[in-house]
Amino acid sequence: MGIVNATPDSFWAKSRFETLERAVSAGRQMFDSGAWAVDIGGESTRPDADPVSVAEELARVIPVVAELVRFGVASVDTRHAEVAEAAVDAGARIVNDVSGKLYEVAGRLGVGYVSMHSHTVPVVAGVYPSYGDVCTDITAFVTDTAHAAVDSGASRVWVDPGIGFGKSPADNVRLLRHLPQLCGGPFPVLLGASRKSFLGAVTGRDVDNRLAASLAVIGPAWSAGVDVIRVHDVPETIDTIAMLNTIWG
């Protein structure tokens, strides 16, 4: 799943596609490179990002969705019901829910749903809540929400532990180590770790230089059985998965 940020302030400057033309071009290139779906967002969830109005988010997202559905599966990355509904009307087939509250919307619309965990949206920089056990707590949350989505009528449901969303670097690593158990649960798993700050905490690299660290996560995720990997760097990810499938598939 490729990432198209129709925003001026997402955490990686090179992933900001502020005009319709740039966003559509980026999404088409991702499809051409082998992405199964493209996830389109109009509100940054980076730490301390300024929230945008629903009207602004709609203006950023809906024209991009309407164009990209001509080339493949479009997903909408949002926390607002109005945006999810309008995106589905424009042809999106997945609601990637960063709020954990839109399962009834996805169910009513009969589309796919990503049950993701986040402590806050947008994330508050440097604020890491305490968990009883981060893996147990987050698995319970995303699984319960996923079941609610199924009960509401969602066509397909994935669970996403929400790497980087209100977790310390150590908690993010614990969640990655827990992927085999999460993948052994009742729902397929979607994972988004691309270029995130915990990779910089491990490697000391800034966001422009985290491609190698991002690709390093794919091996254990693939081995664990993760169903969808959400990334900025589609061609490199496709090549990595191709080699894993060739050697170990």
UniProtKB/TrEMBL annotation:
It catalyses: (7,8-dihydropterin-6-yl)methyl diphosphate + 4-aminobenzoate = 7,8-dihydropteroate + diphosphate. It is an enzyme of class 2 (transferase). Its EC number is 2.5.1.15. Pathway: Cofactor biosynthesis; tetrahydrofolate biosynthesis; 7,8-dihydrofolate from 2-amino-4-hydroxy-6-hydroxymethyl-7,8-dihydropteridine diphosphate and 4-aminobenzoate: step 1/2. GO terms for biological process: folic acid biosynthetic process; tetrahydrofolate biosynthetic process. NCBIfam families: DHPS. GO terms for molecular function: dihydropteroate synthase activity; metal ion binding. CDD domains: DHPS (cd00739). This is dihydropteroate synthase. The gene is folP. It comes from the Bacteria. InterPro entries: DHP_synth-like, DHP_synth_dom, Dihydropteroate_synth-like_sf, Pterin-binding_dom. One of its GO terms (cellular component) is cytosol.
